[in-house]
Predict the structure.
Amino acid sequence: MDAPSLERWRHDHVFLGADHGANERRTWAVVALTAAMMVAEIGGGILFGSIALVADGLHMSTHVAALSIAAIAYNVARRHSDNDWFSFGTGKIGDLAAFASAIILVMVALLIGYESVMRLIHPVAIQYGEAILIAFLALAVNLASAFLLHHHDHHHHGDDHDDNHGHDHDGHDHHRDHHHSHDREDHNDRHDDQHEPGRHDDHDRAHHADHNIRAAYLHILADAVTSLLAISALVAASYFGFTWLDPAAGFLGTIVIAVWAWSLMKSTGAVLLDAVPSRARLDLIRQRLEVDEDQVVDLHLWRLGPGHLGVLAVIVSESPLPPEHYKARLSGIESLSHIHIEVNPY
């Protein structure tokens, strides 16, 4: 077989998100902004003898570390996107970074909880004016950072990668006859059915989420929440004299951040363990493939990267057809970027 004729079977494994480059730039910008605030707080605290400024600057350093992990993950995933050492590309590097960020969020929550307990056991005098000013400065930086990170992709589930990256992979196809054949029934009508199960199911769209940018956003949001709670508690404590409001706000922040961290760990952990991203989509694929005597004996669906899913199916049939026939049945199903069909006769 001539070498040029093999090109139709070759493909890349670049399964990065639709806005990978833009998210990388946004994340680096937030790293710079947060790091500048951290240096200003620590430097100002040392210069003016304010332990509160130094403490808040050190607290912000944990977020700088987490945001840097997210930014580096984008960079590594982009630079190694064509590295064949990664069997299915580098799309999951962002999920790995997000899982690490979730662990850091848990540590931040525990640290805030510990400090709150210590403040209840051993109350300290609070310089309300200075503390409120610090909290407002931190909140301003957080809001600016949140504005950079929060864009339509946090809620946008669709993208255009399905058409651009819908590779046809035969892999270990046992049926090698590639002649054109007539379908035993027309499936194209079903492909256009907008009410088909799984087409517009919100729970079916999580595979589009960029968990790395979500992790960075949650770090900023966590810091903003703690700043907002601190402002409210400090203002109320200075007015009413209830010093316990400050550690109480810390406990509330601990709970909120811990819940966010747990949610992020669950979603990213599922991706890293190749969990089925959508039961509805898996059922739809099986429904499309099991026609007449065709039976699916093995079916796998997993996430390759933001907006990209992989499918591996083993079909047995009394009248097996070429793999392309079965792949055609899956056309129109969103985000199937890597399809492998194995066909075996009874």
User: Anything to note?
Assistant: The CA atoms of residues 286 and 296 lie 7 Å apart. The domain at 14-157+209-272 is CATH 1.20.1510.10 (Alpha-lytic protease prodomain-like).
